[in-house]
């Protein structure tokens, strides 16, 4: 094998949802920067999950904060997925996308009780995250509106501290050590607790974390009479780097079914298992296509300055996330080492010392795995415009969000 063949062999191991040719066509038609999503990849991920958990009644609520374009919501719905929302506006988007209220789980954090009441008015399932809200909810609704309670089981998990939510300093959920207090409120108000929820963080490769969590949940399940489900949240990892592995959902599915069976035998009760995958469903489907504006040789490195920045893709700067990057305009050119930066007046380094096929000014550069928390975390910093979004389905590219225009910057300003 020649050097390039070897490289192509390794590249082939990574998922490339859309061909370079089609990405170039899309960039030419809709301009850059542009987010491109591949519908069938979302379906593939969804099917992997449903297949892995088919031994036990399991439901999947797409954590839509990863990517809320309404066309994506509709697509997930068409696959049979349900919806997890963290704000009342996500709930409204979900309803607009055609989800029925009982298909929506509302898991907000540190919101005013008024926002919870809006959720009740919409008729969606409510997941309660603090003692204060639990008390207010119980006093107002008693057993007339079933709820789910978010527990913090204090299992430390996930890629790093910033994306872990189960540790002792985390603001999420009600501590498992406050179980007595939860029980007191439930008993006093007559609340119907239908589900127990945990979500310990993102990018969890080790399935033992989920199983430990499930164990904790099963351990307290008998305290809630009308319990129907246990929601294990998410944190399923996908491969970002060449040697990364995604969460082994197949084994997890088998182990969860075993644990559920044991619980069933002991308590004569079947509890549904719920999950809330975000990244797992939509990360790999996304490619973010930008243009190399400038090649700048300094004494220290060669910079590729692209027509984007952390205003469009903040994960590398915010979480030190790794995104694979390729030059699709020159895919077989000689390999050189670059530092890829944006055009924002701030330090906005996407990647240091990255091997790319030789980049010329004007080349199209792709960031892979850009579907989750990409567009969704974009901003208008530096008065730059948010990019367009395109969905490729059945081979056809369709614009699902227009890029901002200058007037969007002025839309709410009082002049
Ligand atoms: C963010 C979030 C998720 C999704 O996490 P991923 O790592 O994207 O899968 C699921 N549940 C809740 C409550 C969340 O806040």
SSE blueprint and pairings:
Layout: H1 3-13, H2 20-30, E1 34-38, H3 39-52, E2 58-63, H4 70-79, E3 82-85, H5 88-96, E4 104-106, H6 113-122, E5 125-128, H7 131-141, E6 147-152, E7 174-175, H8 179-189, E8 193-197, H9 207-221, E9 229-231, H10 249-267, E10 272-275, H11 279-282, E11 286-297, E12 302-306, H12 315-319, E13 325-327, E14 335-341, E15 349-357, E16 364-367, E17 388-393, E18 396-401, H13 406-410
Parallel strand pairs: 1-17, 2-3, 2-10, 3-4, 4-5, 5-6, 6-7, 6-8, 8-9, 9-10, 12-14
Antiparallel strand pairs: 1-11, 11-12, 11-16, 13-16, 14-15, 17-18
The protein binds pyridoxal-5'-phosphate (PLP).
Pyridoxal-5'-phosphate binds next to helix 11.
Major sheet details: 9 strands, mixed
Task: Tell how many strands the DSSP assignment holds.
Answer: 18
Which shape, going by the Cα principal axes?
globular
CATH superfamily of the largest domain: Alanine racemase
Radius of gyration, in angstroms, nearest whole number: 23 Å
- Helical content stands at 25-40%
- The structural domain count equals 2
Average residue pLDDT: 93
| Hetero compounds | pyridoxal-5'-phosphate
**Poorly predicted sequence stretches spanning 5 or more consecutive residues:** 1-12
- The computed structural class is alpha/beta
Could you say what the CATH architecture of the largest domain is?
Alpha-Beta Barrel
Question: What is the CATH C level class of the largest domain, in words?
Answer: Alpha Beta
% residues in beta strands: 15-25%
CATH fold category name of the largest domain: TIM Barrel
């Amino acid at each position: 094998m020649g050097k390039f063949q070897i490289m192509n062999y390794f590249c082939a191991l990574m998922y490339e949802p859309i061909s370079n040719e089609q990405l170039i066509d899309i960039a030419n038609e809709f301009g850059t920067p542009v987010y491109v999503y591949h519908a069938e990849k979302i379906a593939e991920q969804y099917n992997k999950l449903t297949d892995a958990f088919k031994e036990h009644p399991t439901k999947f609520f797409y954590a839509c904060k990863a990517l809320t374009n309404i066309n994506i919501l509709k697509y997930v719905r068409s696959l049979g997925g349900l919806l997890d929302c963290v704000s009342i506006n996500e709930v409204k988007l979900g309803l607009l996308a055609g989800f029925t209220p009982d298909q929506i789980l509302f898991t907000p954090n540190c919101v005013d009780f008024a926002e919870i009441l809006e959720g009740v008015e919409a008729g969606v399932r409510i997941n309660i995250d603090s003692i204060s809200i639990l008390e207010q909810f119980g006093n107002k609704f008693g057993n007339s509106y079933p709820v789910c309670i978010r527990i913090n089981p204090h299992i430390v998990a996930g890629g790093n501290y910033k994306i872990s939510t189960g540790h002792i300093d985390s603001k999420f959920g009600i501590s498992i050590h406050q179980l007595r207090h939860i029980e007191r409120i439930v008993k006093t108000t007559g609340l119907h607790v239908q589900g127990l929820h945990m979500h310990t963080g993102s990018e969890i490769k080790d399935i033992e974390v989920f199983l430990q969590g499930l164990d904790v949940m099963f351990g307290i399940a008998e305290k809630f009479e009308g319990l129907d489900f246990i929601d294990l949240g998410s944190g399923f990892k996908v491969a970002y780097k060449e040697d990364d592995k995604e969460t082994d959902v197949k084994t997890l599915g088998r182990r969860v079914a075993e644990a559920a069976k044991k619980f069933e035998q002991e308590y004569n009760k079947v509890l549904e298992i719920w999950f809330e995958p975000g990244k797992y469903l939509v990360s790999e489907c996304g490619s973010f296509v930008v243009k190399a504006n400038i090649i700048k040789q300094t004494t220290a490195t060669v910079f590729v300055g692209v027509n984007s920045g952390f205003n469009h893709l903040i994960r590398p700067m915010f979480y030190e996330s790794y995104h694979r990057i390729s030059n699709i305009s020159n895919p077989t050119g000689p390999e050189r080492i670059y530092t890829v930066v944006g055009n924002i007046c701030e330090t906005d380094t996407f990647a240091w010392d990255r091997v790319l096929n030789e980049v010329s000014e004007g080349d199209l550069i792709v960031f892979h795995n850009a579907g989750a928390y990409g567009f969704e975390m974009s901003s208008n910093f530096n008065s730059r415009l948010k990019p367009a979004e395109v969905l490729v389905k059945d081979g056809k590219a369709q614009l699902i969000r227009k890029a901002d225009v200058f007037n969007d910057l002025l839309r709410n300003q009082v002049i």
